[in-house]
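Sync notes, pocket subgroup
Present: LS, DG
LS reminded everyone that the earlier model was apo-only. Rerun requested with zinc ion included. Inputs:
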Amino acid sequence: MNSNHVALDCGLPIEERISELVRLWTRDGRGTDHLLTGKAFYAVYSWHLKYWTDHDIAWAEFVAASFDAIGGRDSWDAMLRERAACGSCGDLYRLENIGLCTGCMEYTCYACGAHGSCTGEIL
Ligand SMILES: [Zn+2]
Ligand SMILES: [Zn+2]
């Protein structure tokens, strides 16, 4: 059990999703139940790398705990080498070479670019 569905919930801006994740994690004693894996982790960690200085230390601690839980640096590097399909053109790219739209949580390649209909940004 984890809280990936909170991170992947397109109904809220990603900042609000992370805020909720940190709230749940803190409320439940900072256990492993709310830590993220897979695409949910990728999204939150990518966002964190861009914006972490703007936020509460608990956000950084939550991300660090998730980072450790997936297996640390080796697992992160392996994740970046995984392939994902662009939601627009279907082409496959390594995660390190494709963006993720925080509005719809679909991957998008840099040739296709941002989704005009999405309010999110490309990570
Ligand atoms: Zn594309
Ligand atoms: Zn989108």
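DG: The CA atoms of residues 3 and 34 lie 5 Å apart.
LS: The first helix runs from residue 4 to 7.
Action: DG to write up.
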